[in-house]
Amino acid sequence: MELQALPSRIGQVRRIVSAQLRYWHLDSLIDRAALGVTELLTNVHLHARPDKTCTVELELLLDRLTVSVRDHDPRLPVVDDADPLATCGRGLAMVAAMSESWGARPDGESGKVVWFTLPTAACAPRATARPPLRAVAEVSAHPFPEVEPVGLARPQPAPARSAVAG
Questions:
Q1: pLDDT tens by residue, 100-154
Q2: Is residue 164 part of a domain?
Q3: 166 falls within a domain
């Protein structure tokens, strides 16, 4: 599915991720997966060059959900210590805190994949041996100067939902 990364489009991807996790009976992972994918898509929207097109992929193995975002910017993200009064710069630290693991790797000569994992063992009944399940969405994250992405990476601590509408 190809989308533009307006706040409403990021909300759409969050709803798609939530629906897929419900389908896989992983409801307890929805909030963390939706928050993580929101942060990764927001980073594409704010930082990726030369274009803002990206792919979101969910991969479910027996004990782990991996959420990854692939874009066309080869620069790997860096987690900085954000100043206490800073209004941005905490997204990847938040992804690291709420996930089992996370990372970034080059993808070919002109792109990267940023990913995080969540454990599924406590979420669903033990599955029988089967191939990994995947869900993929194409996202175009073109910036729009008239749309200010205020609050995309700054969800409120309570309730446990992201601050982006949707």
A1: 999 999 998 889 999 999 999 766 554 444 555 666 555 544 443 333 333 333 3
A2: no
A3: no
CATH number of the domain where residue 43 is located:
3.30.565.10
Beta strands in 40-84, from DSSP E residues, in sequence order? 53-60, 64-71
Q: What share of the chain is helix, strand, coil (3-state, %, to 5)?
A: 30, 25, 50
DSSP one-letter string for 95-154: HHHHSSEEEEEE-TTS-EEEEEEEE-TTTSPPPPS-PPEEEEEEEE----TTS--TTTT-
Q: Would you say residue 17 lies in a domain?
A: yes
Pairing of strands 53-60, 64-71: antiparallel
Count the domains in the chain.
Answer: 1
pTM of the model as a whole: 0.72
Q: Give residue for tokens 């959900």.
A: 65
Is 79 domain-assigned?
A: no
